[in-house]
């Protein structure tokens, strides 16, 4: 009867790394058409893309079409951006420097991103409060948030600060 019961610890967060994230997808736990992102080791379910959201990403593709054709830039639409083992968001649009393998060897990272755009409607709060600080921490040089809910679009360079952005939302 000399055993002393230790006080239980508070529940701890279990962060998933990208390896576990991909194994879950391969096992069918994260199945299509479910859109998910890995942020800070947490899996976030993303909402389906509506027509206005898709239109903005199409306009961005159009704006960059000449630069893509000239081999100046490569665009990535709703594809993974590997920031570290615990962060692999899927931004709506990223302009990247071209690479001969088109990033087949590995997903692009923060250092590769020339411009990153998040198109936000119901995700505006999540994009501003969760994703933007992650992008800033990893050094994404320029982030735009296209606010489809009627607010002004935002542009952040380096550390987040508000500035102007071309009209892509209307």
What does the model show?
The protein has three helices and seven strands, in the order H-E-E-H-E-E-E-H-E-E. With 170 residues, the chain is α+β, with helices and mostly antiparallel strands. It has a domain at 49-157: tt1808, chain A (Alpha-Beta Complex), CATH 3.90.1570. It has a five-stranded mixed sheet with strand order 3-4-5-6-7, sandwiched between helices. The chain has a two-stranded antiparallel ribbon with strand order 1-2. Strand 6 (142-147) and strand 7 form a beta hairpin. The longest helix has 19 residues, at 51-69. The radius of gyration is 19 Å and the shape is globular. Mean pLDDT is 85; it is low at 159-170.
Which fold name fills CATH's third level, the topology of the domain at 49-157?
Answer: tt1808, chain A
Oligomeric composition of the shown chains? single chain
How far do the termini sit from each other? 74 Å
Mean pLDDT equals: 85
Instruction: Give the fraction of residues assigned to helices.
Output: 10-25%
Main pleated-sheet profile: 5 strands, mixed
List the helices and strands and how they pair.
Elements: H1 18-26, E1 35-39, E2 42-46, H2 51-69, E3 74-76, E4 93-96, E5 115-120, H3 124-137, E6 142-147, E7 154-157
Parallel strand pairs: 5-6
Antiparallel strand pairs: 1-2, 3-4, 4-5, 6-7
């Amino acid at each position: 009867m000399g055993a002393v019961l230790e006080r239980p610890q508070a529940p701890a967060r279990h962060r998933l790394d990208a390896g576990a994230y991909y194994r879950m997808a391969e096992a069918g736990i994260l199945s299509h058409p479910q859109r998910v992102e890995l942020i800070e080791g947490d899996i976030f379910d993303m909402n389906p893309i509506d027509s206005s959201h898709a239109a903005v990403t199409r306009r961005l593709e159009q704006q960059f079409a000449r630069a893509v054709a000239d081999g100046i830039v490569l665009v990535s639409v709703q594809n993974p951006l590997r920031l570290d083992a615990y962060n692999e968001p899927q931004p709506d649009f990223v302009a990247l420097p071209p690479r001969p393998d088109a990033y087949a060897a590995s997903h692009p990272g923060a250092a590769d991103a020339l411009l990153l755009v998040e198109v936000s409607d119901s995700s505006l709060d999540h994009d501003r409060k969760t994703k933007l600080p992650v992008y800033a921490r990893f050094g994404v040089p320029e982030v735009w948030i296209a606010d489809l809910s009627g607010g002004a679009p935002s542009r952040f360079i380096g550390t987040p600060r508000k500035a102007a952005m071309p009209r892509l939302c209307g």
